[in-house]
Design brief:
Radius of gyration: 15 Å
Number of helices: 5
Structural class: alpha/beta
Shape: globular
Largest sheet: 8 strands, mixed
Order of helices and strands: EEHEHEHEHEHEEEE
Helix content: 25-40%
Strand content: 25-35%
Number of strands: 10
Distance between the termini: 46 Å
């Protein structure tokens, strides 16, 4: 099994994560450190949604650092097996970690989503080759984010997402060469334009 970095902090600190093959781009330690330094104040007891979860590294880091629960959505069966193995390896498997094998678009479109509690932090890391996938995910997830909740997207630096997408407004960016993190906050409920 390929290597997908390590858990940087918290209960599972230092544990190396397995990788999920060539189609998956694991989040690098430098990007992960910056991401979690920024969202750390919102993380304790948060409900986290990890979309396009890949190896599960981002959601696992959130659980390790004190998130109350994490849901991992990934379409690739091999990657889903890796997420399950990584949760077991880090001793974070259990009722607070749900792994869903489905496409993000299909999962977000399920009618039951509107009746679930909202997520405090959403991590979105779609394939870089089609920016429309990121836009669709942001549009679909906006109503599922708790008031004042955060959405963080990882995307190619040359194709930034819009500053505002439905209920989400961009608040900052952090660039790491060809990769950029864009941070959104859910704005107060209002009719979407």
């Amino acid at each position: 099994m390929a290597d997908a970095g390590r858990v940087i902090a918290g209960r599972a600190r230092g544990i190396r994560l397995g990788g999920a093959g060539q189609g998956t781009r694991p989040i690098g330690d430098r990007v992960k450190q910056s991401l979690f330094a920024i969202i750390e104040p919102d993380l304790r007891d948060a409900r986290v949604l990890d979309l396009f979860a890949g190896t599960g590294a981002a959601g696992i880091e959130a659980l390790s650092r004190g998130a109350a629960a994490a849901t991992f959505v990934e379409r690739d069966p091999e990657a889903v097996r890796v997420i399950v193995a990584n949760l077991a390896r880090t001793h974070l498997a259990g009722p607070t970690a749900a792994v869903v094998e489905n496409t993000v678009a299909r999962w977000l479109g399920l009618p039951i989503r509107v009746h679930e509690p909202r997520w405090d932090i959403v991590l979105v890391d779609p394939p870089y080759d089609d920016p429309s996938v990121l836009l669709a995910a942001l549009t679909g997830v906006g109503p599922l984010v708790a008031p004042n909740g955060r959405v963080v997207t990882k995307h190619a630096s040359q194709t930034p997402p819009p500053q505002q997408v439905g209920l989400l407004a961009s608040e900052r960016e952090s660039r790491f060469g060809v990769t950029t993190l864009t941070f959104y906050r859910r704005v107060e409920d209002r009719p979407e334009s």
